[in-house]
Design goal:
The protein is an alpha/beta fold and about 220 residues long. Helices cover about 25% and strands about 35% of the residues.
């Protein structure tokens, strides 16, 4: 198992996880608008517990959004700085895929729809399909809440994320499982990052950028 530090602050959760020598430790705290004051303390505490230097890691992973603009910029900046200073690789992963990973691995769902509040009467929609633990399909977009169509889904779909609350009346027609109180967790990010590292899906620190969905089927890096 590669040694990786994972950082995920795209939501109200400030979440950090560390794998080193096949052991995982983590911090995960719901702390709205307090990520800046908590994130670096969490990172330092994890590294201190294992008596590690950043240069002993293989990579640093980050959830690049979409989500809170402030949160994902903070996470990407922290990951960039650590990777630059330590001379290690970076791994950048969709924060919605991190949630889908949880739904697949922890609650054994195969057809997953991640919903995140994009504000300004919009909602981020991520659709993921798995065969076993393998992701075979993914699509991410932002749509107006009023144009979210429950006719696009069926009872086989699992809906997860805080954005479910924005369309709960529409979802209630489907009789589908709904988990509206789950936030992206760095432990799930870590699991994805380990697979990416093993398959060589790494990048240079300067390539780590926040990713925003700016319109239907469009990505924007900022």
């Amino acid at each position: 198992m590669p040694n990786i530090l994972a950082i995920e602050t795209s939501s109200d959760a400030c979440s950090v996880a560390l794998s080193f020598e096949n052991e995982i430790s983590s911090f995960h705290e719901i702390a709205p608008q307090k990520h800046t004051e908590k994130l670096f303390g969490f990172i330092q505490e994890l590294m201190k517990e294992r008596r590690l230097k950043f240069s002993q890691l293989d990579a640093v992973a980050v959830g690049h959004g979409p989500g809170s603009f402030t949160g994902i910029r903070l996470a990407c900046s922290a990951a960039q700085g650590i990777a630059y200073s330590a001379g290690i690789s970076a791994i950048s992963i969709s924060s919605m895929e991190v949630v889908a990973q949880y739904a697949n691995s922890k609650i054994k769902q195969k057809d997953i729809v991640v919903l995140v509040d994009a504000h300004m009467k919009q909602i981020y929609v991520g659709r993921y399909k798995f065969e076993g633990e393998e992701l075979i399909y993914s699509d991410e977009e932002v749509v107006l809440v009023q144009k979210f169509l429950d006719s696009n889904f069926d009872s086989k779909s699992c809906f997860i994320g805080g954005g479910c609350k924005l369309v709960e009346k529409k979802l209630s027609k489907l009789n589908s499982p709904i988990y509206d109180d789950h936030y992206p967790n760095a432990v799930d990010l870590l699991s994805l990052a380990q697979r990416r590292f093993i398959t060589g899906q790494i990048m240079r620190p300067e390539e780590v950028l926040p990713v925003y969905l700016s319109g239907k089927e469009h990505w924007t890096k900022g």
